[in-house]
User: What shape does this take?
Amino acid sequence: MHNENHDHIIELIPAYALGVLDADESAVVIQHLGGCTACRAELAAYESVVDALPLAAPQIDPSPALKERLLEQIQASPAPKTAVPPASPWQRSIADYIQEFLAGPRWQPALALAVIVLLAGAFFIWQQAGPTPLNQVELTATDAAPDAHGLIAIAANGRDATLTVAGLPALPPEKQYQLWLIEDGQRDSGAVFSVNADGSADVTVDSERPLTEYSAFGVTIEPAGGSPGPTGERVLGHNL
Ligand SMILES: [Zn+2]
Assistant: This one.
């Protein structure tokens, strides 16, 4: 009787015919053979081949000298290496491919491309990460305040920006600093601010246009509350 076992058993028939199955496997084969004429026919075919095998090769007794040399060689041969689990065909083919790939000159441009792709990916993630400044505009000191430093950090949206200053002299109450956003000779006010006792300040820049549209920046000393346009001495500047 054919059952789902048949495909499994018919694969075991050659080993069964050679007598190399273990007892449990042999029992399963014998049990199946009782109800499966196809497997019995298969076994009969294999058994006739197996029976014929010893007759196919004429038995020759090797000369005593040859026997001795063979035994010497067998004893001299190194012990078999520790068995390594055989790699499956696809594992082997991937390993071969990688070895072949690394051995060839093609890996260098491919590696360069891989690095570029990774860097592009990292940059994309970095860009998505949030309020990282798109641009940092460094403001340099003038002779009016040689120890001053200034930085405008413009957010990725190009509009939100913060001015950070340090080293600016404290001003009398009637004076304040004013940030100017400059493009094509036009000067827009970006912030009016005072500094802390240590000469530092963090100021939110207020602009109707994206900060990235301006090409130059300056900080001047103005009357408290600011001016419509710069009137006082410049203490910080960029591209001026
Ligand atoms: Zn069968």
